[in-house]
TrEMBL record:
It comes from the Eukaryota. Residues 7-19 have a biased composition (Basic residues). SUPFAM superfamilies: TPR-like. One of its GO terms (cellular component) is RQC complex. InterPro entries: TCF25/Rqc1, TPR-like_helical_dom_sf. This is TCF25 factor.
Length: 563
């Protein structure tokens, strides 16, 4: 009997060994097949039913956010394969210890251990199925925040580094400020990591009922405690787009818009069309235009006026659609692009110029699209058109797109020569509207850092300091605790100089320029010296920073108290 039992045990061990090897094979197969899985999911795209017009519609809310689309690794896997992104690591090796599971970012083991930072989220009220939340700063965090503001106002940018090191390694505004400094030094990797740490800290403070995906959770930008979350999401979205992850960036853009769709404090409506086109989410863009045009007048924004017909054009090129769908998409694209050219004629020539395309003699000599169209447009419209052309001109360089655009430009010139009433009506609307832009558009232009649009900002914006951690705060802010007043420096400095001052408050371009001609390079030298000293201090801090580890159960010596 003992001999038989030993044999049975050996057989069981062999079976377990075979089973474990089979599990390893399955894990490898999962890694190999993950690309096919994602492609199938992307192909269906969660779309469920067809409309009569042939354009596929989604039964879920427009701003519904999917968790899997918030992870840039999933998008990179589709482009380069799972092996290239994950390497030879097995899933168990990729598990991270001692960190919370989050959706917005993937925390790294090298990050400081997260403890209570003094930020919490509270549910204020629920109205008509919509929940209104707000972040709150406890006394500990308030003291750090006031010290941060004091250091910024005291013209000492280096004081931010010891604040992170000694007091609060997850102080959100400090992380965002340092991220901007690294980005100015073209260290995109470090800039991205600092923004992700800020998002990780804020997500760990979420209320249990706060949902990223429902589209029914709101945050009020007028409260300073909420602005850091908006700005961290926006900066993360821009870094993702530059990283080559437009689909993930689009999902973050939808998330930002869902937090306050009525006011849109960062005006992401000026950007969402570009991300949708880059991510080839044409159906989402056309659906958004159909659902929001009636109450948001999206066609009055140049970016939607031109991007939506471009999306219909791309849909008309998809061979898997029926002939009826292709015909309807072509007709809709032609109709909308002609309306856009009539309403915003000043877009065409700069767009062709950025695409390095020479217009034909008839278009170049016609006054409708000529220089007078750009000179006569209101300043606010000039900001919007400059923003759109610089941001999206690369999407128009395709030869098929240019041929389609040329055909419709000639059709518009026929309408202009025939004195179509629509042309005169559009000109009248341009003169009445776009006289001044709301503050959220100015805030978007400052955050986007597109110099052509920033050059058109009005003096009331360029004459005040623009802080990178809180650009152009709302005039009706809801202050929950006392903050030191900002020192205004009215001057004729450029927006770029004021942006440098927000990062390096001791930088003074005007003071250097008042000296003799031999000291003209003083401003640039002072900027480089200040930035380099700040970078050196931050790198030294990040290299030497040490954080206490909590006592573990298996460590008999860890009897000390850890906070």
């Amino acid at each position: 009997q003992p001999a038989l039992s030993n044999k049975s045990r050996k057989k069981k061990k062999k079976r377990k060994t075979k089973k474990s090897s089979a599990e390893e094979t399955l894990e490898d197969n999962d890694l190999e097949n993950i690309d096919n899985l994602l492609e199938k999911i992307e192909g269906t795209n969660g779309l469920s039913q067809e409309t009569q017009s042939g354009i596929i519609a989604d039964s879920r809310p427009l701003l519904y956010v999917e968790h899997r689309n918030l992870n840039p690794e999933n998008e990179l896997k589709r482009y380069f394969g799972a092996r290239a992104v994950l390497g030879d690591q097995r899933p168990r090796q990729r598990q991270r210890q001692n960190v919370r599971g989050t959706w917005l970012t993937t925390p790294d083991n090298s990050w400081p251990r997260y403890t209570s930072t003094g930020i919490t989220m509270q549910l204020l009220e629920t109205r008509r199925g919509v929940q209104y939340f707000t972040f709150e700063h406890h006394r500990k965090y308030q003291q750090v925040q006031l010290l941060f503001l004091k250091n910024i106002e005291s013209m000492d940018p280096n004081s931010v580094v010891p604040l992170l090191q000694a007091l609060e390694p997850y102080h959100v505004d400090s992380l965002l400020l340092l991220s901007d400094a690294y980005r100015m030094q073209e260290d995109q990797e470090m800039a991205r990591e600092l923004v992700e740490q800020a998002l990780y800290s804020l997500e760990c403070s979420f209320h249990p009922l706060f949902s990223l995906t429902s589209g029914t959770c709101r945050l009020d930008y007028r409260r300073p405690e909420n602005r850091s979350f908006f700005l961290a999401l926006f900066k993360h979205m821009m870094l993702l787009e530059k990283r080559g992850c437009p689909r993930t960036a689009l999902e973050f853009c939808k998330l930002i818009l869902s937090l306050d769709p009525e006011n849109d404090p960062l005006c992401v409506l000026l950007l969402i069309d570009f991300l949708a086109l880059r991510a080839r989410e044409y159906t989402f863009l056309t659906r958004m235009f159909q659902e929001w045009e009636s109450h948001r007048n999206l066609s009055q924004l140049p970016n939607f006026a031109f991007s939506v017909p471009l999306a219909y054009f791309f849909l008309s090129q998809q061979e898997e659609r029926s002939e009826l769908e292709l015909s309807q998409a072509r007709e809709k694209a032609a109709q909308l692009i002609q309306l856009a050219l009539i309403m915003f004629p000043s877009v065409l020539m700069p767009l062709l110029d950025h695409c390095s395309v020479q217009p034909d003699a008839r278009v170049a000599s016609h006054s409708f699209f000529g220089l007078s169209a750009q000179i006569s447009q209101p300043p606010a419209l000039n900001q919007l058109t400059s923003l759109y052309v610089v941001r999206t001109h690369s999407l128009w360089k395709d030869p098929a797109v240019m041929a389609w655009l040329e055909t419709n430009v000639n059709e518009v010139l026929h309408m202009v020569d025939a004195q179509d009433p629509l042309v005169e009506d559009s000109e009248h609307k341009r003169k009445i509207r776009y006289q001044s832009a709301p503050r959220n558009i100015y805030r978007h232009i400052v955050l986007s850092e597109i110099k052509e649009a920033m050059a058109a900002l009005p003096p009331e914006v360029t004459s005040q300091p623009v802080m990178g951690f809180d650009p152009l705060p709302p005039l009706d802010s809801i202050i929950s605790y006392t903050r030191p007043e900002r020192t205004n420096h009215p001057s004729n400095e450029s927006t770029l100089s004021l942006f440098f001052r927000s990062l390096l408050p001791n930088f003074n371009l005007q003071g250097d320029m008042r000296h003799d001609g031999d000291e003209e390079a003083g401003a640039g030298h002072d900027l480089n010296q200040g930035v380099n000293s700040l970078m050196a201090a931050m790198r030294d801090m990040l290299a030497n920073i040490q954080f206490l580890e909590p006592p573990r159960d298996d460590n008999p010596e860890g009897d000390g108290e850890w906070d």
